[in-house]
Each structure stands twice: as structure tokens, then as C-alpha cells.
Amino acid sequence: MIPLADIVPDQTARDMREPDAGTPLVRLSNVSKSFGAVRALIDVSVDIHAGEVHAILGENGAGKSTLMNILTGVLQPSTGTIEVGERNVMPLTPETSSALGIAISYQHPAILPDMSVLENLQVALPSRIFEAERDDHVGRRLLDDVGLHVPLNARVDALTIAQKHLLELAKALAVNPKVLILDEPTAALDQDATDMLFDRVRQLKAGGTAVIYITHRLAELRQIADRVTVLRDGRHRGSALASEISNSELLDLIVGRTLASAFPPKCPQSDPQINFEVRGLSGRKFTDVSFNVGRGQIIGVAGVEGNGQSDLMRALVGLQSYSGDIKLADRTLKPGELKDMAAFMPSDRHEEGLAADLTIRENATFASLDKYASGGVLSRRREHEKVQDVFSSLAVKASGLEAKVSSLSGGNQQKIVMSRALLSEPGYIIADEPTQGVDVGARFEIYRILREVSDAGTPVIVNSSDAAELEGLCDIVIVMSRGRVVETLRGDEITEARIVGAAVEADTHAHHADEARRSEGGFAAKFRHFAQTDNATIIPLAIVAVALALFVSGQNENYLSAFNLSNILILATALGFIALGQTIALLMGGIDLSVGPLAGFCVVIGSFFINDGNAAATMGLGFALMFGAAMVVGLINGILIRFANFTPIAATLAMFIGLQGMSFVLRDGPGGYISFDVIDTLTWRFGAVPVAFIVMVALAIAMEIGLRRARPGWQLRAVGSNEESARRIGVRTDLTFVLGYVGVSVLTALGAVMLMAQIGVGDPAQGVNYTLGSITAVVLGGTSLLGGRGTFIGSVLGAILLTEVLNAVSFLGLSQSYQYGFQGLLILAAALIYTTARRRREE
């Protein structure tokens, strides 16, 4: 073994191959990866052995996650090979990696926020795991194994950060992997969850599993790791047994320089002047919280995850309602002032801390633009100068201020969040898990800046699940349990043991398991759950449709006649089929503007073959050509979007124009009358109800069941919920998207068949209005325009209600302009209802 202290920093992995420790289970040889001109990995070679915990260390941006993404098939290396059991397994995909027994728990969980906890397990895990017993029993067991006590039907976006990480762990551990990759697994976990994880890792290790453990916490390495590898600037800087290398040597290799003490000196005054005070603060999940902060002091908030700490942080910055007093420099702040006075560093920087589509500069300054403006005109020079000053003090590593913030490593992204807090020149700073997922060097910079800000007189309140961090950084620590302060520690009382002991021994500790079980039972709980589901729109839509029918019938008794009801349902059938297709597009996070002209184009095609006097074979050919043309259109739309980098709107708008033009090329006016026998068959009724309508409803129900209970349905929603997460868990996103658009077009062709029966002639001008109509019906049905959430049954009801409204306008003797007005009002009402309901679910 070569001592790491003797390794030259620029030496590569080839120069320092370790002595043979047996045949490795996984061997990565000379792996390199470039993103344009940026070289993320350079000739990295690592051997992973069975029955060992191999820690991978390095600063954010060192290449750790890139290397793991290559091993799991999410990324392809530019050069290099990967061997599993002495077999070259290149090229890897997420599916083949999983088949080889490689599982990963990502630093940023690959979860699908719009789906339930159970559905996340079902779509991510092989179906064999659920074969032995009921899915909900398997799901409950998997969650209990990692100490995650939440309802299986809870939507994942309602979970806390820690709960999302536990769900990610549950998925990784469920497959009993040969190689388990844990990427910063404890970043958001409390001590109990961390201890549970370490116990499971030791069990896996004893069973021969190779565990790759990525961490920034050297204390964890000492508890769990057998071997350690250090990466820096994309290069392999050294590998050794964990027992043969000191922390100081590791730190030198990680940062490439000698580091001073991790924590800056604390406030020297024992009783400084109070500059921030909280008295009797109560709110959601916390009660009667009081504390004060003196000038130069940093106060920490500790406790087992889920006991009100994060809710307290959000209340202190005005993001949650509260009662009580918050005083800044002896002035009581009103709730409306908090957002202007406070700078918030949220625990989830991806969801709340950063705008991924904006540049680094824009993310750093959008909360303080008024400070760089004169007379309402922004001075870009002043903005750049200030940003550069703050970036220099925080040692932000970025290719340029105008690069996308998403291109930065996790640690540098957190520094951008901190930069925005500093640039806003706040009255006080609230930092919720400020070093979560941040490397050793970046942590030191954040600690230093927080201390400097505090010394300058700005109050700093830090919530952290890392007791050692609170011990080293804070002058005062309040420990919370079940929303109450159970102990306040000061000075020498602040030790890791006292913090952890106060949190876990409090008799007011929350019983999460009992609460989860209670939340899964009872009528009230079931009703609340239904109100949060995608199908919650069914009941109000049905009520509105019935109420409208009764109202119009009161104005015109012929409205509810068998003839008119049948007419409404026939019209709704054509729109309903097309709306079912549009629902698929919206579920994937896309849209299809071409469905209207496609329906008209299909009718024009049919009008050349499906005529009286033609043979059955000729008519059959006409139907085949209608569906064949639709499938080709859907395939082209999917390919344009997935492989030609068209946006869904651009691709389908181009198709809209093209199809409309082709319809007029085939027929310059109405012509080609459809066979009366075909029309009679398509419009055949069972009483007042058309059989085609019954078929459409049956199809919608079948599709709804598939959407909720079948893997293709889960994958469809997964792509729309979070495409990157879906790709990481093995969903073939490109194929799903292309097949989805083919499905949209096939369902549109079904709608075209019913449109053909309605108009009875090939008319190139018909069908266009179905684009707006289908979108209206789908939005009315409760499907999100953002993707991931929707319901086929709701779309059918939306189509019925929209058809009913348009029909009612005629019966009430109103002009055609009212049709468009009512249609617009329905869209607006549906969007407002959906947005309000979603906001309330998230609160």
C-alpha cells in the first residue's frame, strides 16, 4: 500500500495501482467523461470489492456523481471500460445496470413528485418484488425497513426532504443489490435514520454486497468504510485502506491544500446585546417557541427530523402563518414584513432555492435588483461588481456568470443560494440545512461567512440535522421535539452528545409511525386522500353537468328529450376520444395542437373509400388508411420532439399547418359522401345512449385502470412528473414519449371516425376546432398542464360538460360568440380551481 501522504497531487490512477486485494467485483478502468470543453473525469480507475464499503471522497464537482452515473448507465463515458465480474459490460444503460445487480440511492432522490409513495416503488422496482404478496403489503414492509412511516397513498411532493431520501433508500435496498451506491445518503437524515442506515450497510456488507459510499463527512467514513478513494478535479488522487490514512491526509488530498480549523471562533462575549428575539411563536407543527440571539451569536435549531424545525424556519421568514412576536433590534416585525427583512436559505435548494433555467448571475441577484438600479434602470456594471465580490469571498467555482446555475456542482449551487442571501443585505438570515450535500471545503467557507455575517451584527439562525455541525458552529442551540423547545444549550453545554441526547430522550417526541397508521385509516382520512387525487374533479364535474341540464331544461323542455340527449352524447363521443388522446400528451408534460386538423384529415381520407356502392374491402382499406395515417403523424410528432429538439408546441403546430394544408390538397371543398350504412352503424343507439359512447366510456375506464395499476401507465406519468428521475430509474423515456404521441393520434383517429359519422362528408375545413375543444375538456377534467397528473375519466366528463354547454347555448337562443365566451370561462375556472386545490394540498 502506498501512503497517501506521499502521493504527488497530480499523479493519476494508472501510476498508483494498489496491490492486488483479490479479484474486484467491479473494475472501472481509465474512465473519462467530457461535457463539451469541460472534462469531468480524466482517466479514473477504481476497483470495487465484494463485502467492502468503499468510500469515495472529493469536493463538489470532483467527479464523484458523474462516475456513479456512468456506473449506473445514466451517462456514457467518453473513454474507458467497466467490468463486472471480469466481464466487459459496456455500454451500460440503467436497465442493464439494474439487471447486473447495481442499485443506487441518489444524492438528489430520483423520485416522481406527482405520484404516490407506493407508485414510486412500483415504477422503480422490478415486478418480481411484488409477486409474492399484495403490493401495499410489500410497500409497507419496504418503508418500515428504512423507518419511513408515511401513508402509501401519500403524494411524494408532500414528503419532507428527509422522507424523500428514505424513500430513495427503500428503493435501493429493496432489490438486495450486488453493488449498492449510496450518494450522500445521510445528508438529510437525523441520527436515528443514520444509525438505521449504517446497520443495514453492515448487514449487506456481511452478505457480500459491495457498497460504494459517497460522503463529505469524515466521521461517517470512520464508522462505516473499509477502503477510501479520493477524487479531485476529475482525477483519481489516491486509494487506501481507511484504517491506514489520517483525516488530515485525506483533507489535504480532497482540497489540494492544508485546511485550518473547520469552525471559526465563536462569539467571545457571554452576554452580548440582544438583536433578535422570538417570543411565544406558534404555528403549524410548532408551539410556544421562544429564544433570543445576541450580536455576534449564531443560534442553532436541533431535533429529530419532523418535529417542527423546518416549519419554524419557514414561519420566521413569512412563508407560514404564526402567532407570537418576532423582534429585530427591539422592533416587533409584522408578518408582512418578514419576507422583506429575512434572507432564507431553504433545505431543498433545487425546489425552492434556485431557478434552474436562469443564469448564475440572475439566481444570485433576482432578490436584490433594486440595489443596482438608479431611477428604475438597472446598472449591469454595479450588479457584476457586487456579484464578483461575493463570489470571490465564497470561492464560487463557475465557468462564468452567464452559465446556467444547473451546470454547477451541489456545493457551488448552495453558495449561489448563500450569495443571494448576502446580496439582499437582509435584517437576519435563516439557514435551513445550509451544508446539506456540500463538500468539506465548501462547508468551511459557509461556516466562515455565517460567522462573519453574525459578527457584523446580522442575526443568524441555523437548522441542522448534523449535531457535530451545531456543536462547532453555534453559540446557542435549542432542541425541539414535537414542535416544542425541550432544552436550550449554551456555551460548553453545546456538545454533540447533549444535543442528540436531548432530542431522542424527550418525552414529547413525535410518534411518526402511529401518526402514519392513523392517517391511513378512517373515513375522514380516506375522504381527504380522495380530495387530493387526480380523480377528485369527477364529482364536481358531474354535479355541474346535472345542474346545467336541469337549468336549461327549465328554460326549454325539449333539452332533455331523448333525441337531444342522444345528439349531445354523439357529439361528446367524438370530442371524448380526441380528449383521451390529448390527455396522454398532457400527462407526459407535452401537448398536441395537431389533433384537430388530424381528425379532419382522417375524415377526408375516409371520404375516398367509405362510400355507398364500394365493397367492404374498399371500406376496410379506408379505415386502415385513416388509422395508418394517424400512426404516422403521431410517430413524426414524437420523433420531432424527442430527437429533433422541437418543443411539443412547435412540432405539433407545424403538423397542424401541414395537415390542414394536405386536407385542402386532397379536397378543395366538401365531397365524398360517407356510406349511410356505416353512419347508421356508428350512431346505433341503445335507447337514447349511443353504443359508441358506451365504448368510449369503457375505453376511458380501462385506460384509467391502466394508468393507476399497470407499469405502462406508471411510466407514462413518470415521464411527465420528472423525466430525469424517470430516466434514472430505468424508464425508457424516449420510447415512452414516442409511443405516447402515437397513442394520441390513434385515439384522435377514433374521434375522426365519429366525426365522419356526424358530418357524413369529407370536408377539409372540419376538425380544426377540436384542438381547442380537446384541451378545454382535458383541463376541465383536472389534468395538469405541467404533466404527471391527470385522469382519463375526468377528460370524458370534461368533454360531456363542454358539449352540453355548447348545446345549451343553442337551446337558450344565444349567439355563437357566447360559445367561445363560455368555453374560455370554463378553461379559466378549471385552471383556477386546479391551481387553488394544488396550493392547498402543498400547504
TrEMBL record:
Does the record carry Repeat as a key word?
yes
Describe its membrane topology: Multi-pass membrane protein
Its subcellular locations are: Cell membrane
Annotated keywords: ATP-binding, Cell membrane, Membrane, Nucleotide-binding, Repeat, Sugar transport, Transmembrane, Transmembrane helix, Transport
Residues in the signal sequence: none
Q: Which CDD domains match?
A: ABC_Carb_Monos_I, ABC_Carb_Monos_II, TM_PBP1_transp_AraH_like
List each coiled-coil range: none
Task: Name the domain of life this protein comes from.
Answer: Bacteria
Q: Does the keyword Transmembrane helix apply?
A: yes
The record ties this protein, via PROSITE patterns, to: ABC_TRANSPORTER_1, ABC_TRANSPORTER_2
One GO MF term, please?
ATP binding
Sequence ranges assigned to domain ABC transporter in this UniProt record: 26-258, 269-507
The record's Gene Ontology cellular component field reads: plasma membrane
Q: What is this protein called?
A: ABC transporter
* Species, as recorded: Pseudooceanicola atlanticus
Q: Name the lineage.
A: Bacteria, Pseudomonadati, Pseudomonadota, Alphaproteobacteria, Rhodobacterales
